[in-house]
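Example 3.2
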Amino acid sequence: MGMIARLPHSALGMLLLLHLVNTLGKDWGSAGLVVALMTVGIAVGAPWRGHMVDKHGLRRALVPSIIVELVVWMLAPHVGFTLLMPLVFIGGLFSLPVFSVVRTSLGVMTTGQNRRSAFALDAISTEMVFIIGPAAAGIVATQINTSVGMTAIAIAASGSGLLLLWLNPPTSSEHPGAVRVRDADAESAGAEVAMIASAPAHLAMAEGELLTAGLKSTKARVARRGRSFKSRFGWVSAGVIAVFIAASGAGLVLSGSEVGIVALLDEHGNSGQLGIVFFFWCFSSLIGGLIYGSLKRSISPIVLLLAMSVLTIPMMFATDTWTLAILSIFSGMLCAPVLSAASERLTELVPEKRRGEAMGWYGSALTGGTALGSPLTGMTIDAMGPGAGFLGVGILGSAICLAALFVQSLRRRRAMARVLASR
């Protein structure tokens, strides 16, 4: 179901680019601007759509997306450039929340190692979608017509929404088909109870004296002011932010690598062999996802992203299509594991009632990193050549990971110091 629902959107970006360049006669810069507007719409809309799933349930949340996707992509081939820009932004804003729904559903249908395997298989299916979708878009645009292709996407996207509406996969443990597990709230509450029970009695007495001295009223005022924010974003923690960093870093490295691959092949006059490199790159991710899904324990997504960033750098030494394809295998094998590990970790950290919104923010972080990686790599390539694109994005991705690991290390040390001090 996830594969079917993702296919129209995986083809949409390529088809929109080709429509703007070939049908409307626009330059690549203008075409990229329109696709960027759609990407921004998706990034803004994903958390909101995920929150609607949490608040109103899957079926009520899907209805606006089904209607808007059908109308927007039916109209898009028949309007000019000026009207197309706000139209694609609206389409992105109301984009079907496939990512949030599928990952949230898998989170409540599986536990433990089964959850890791499920997320890995979902990442693998996503790789297959992004092998099929853009290629199909290119064939339709060149052999038939971009207008026909966008009309087909409108029907397919809304049809996918109706399929989700009909199947109604569980998005909470109260729904049929879900596995009841302790959520992050219960686990954190249990940890707090254990800490309080083991605390020395004099600490509790000191706290009582402080409260009676006047801190109680101060805390009450602070609590009132922060209650609204906490009820809305109380699920956000340092661990959740680390997952979002991993997602945005993965998007940055992947989009930068994609631009580098296209630029390097174009420099050698081998643009027609792009499919060879993409096949090796995506297929290695599929294999990596299978391996990660079979592991007995999880690995930090930050660590996996660091390895992927470092292994992206050797791609700068490619001299032709085949060396580039072979060098892409090493970083490609870590793509699906990074996304699988991040999804698994987010599911463990976020309470069930907030997972739809959290997955939406996760998708926005991934989209934001993707949107940032392409122009940064493009500027590096313009200044220093195609090979430097892989070097730049690899170093930047590694720097993000090292900074995140350093901050995590500091937090652990401070937490340990507080525990020792309390004893």
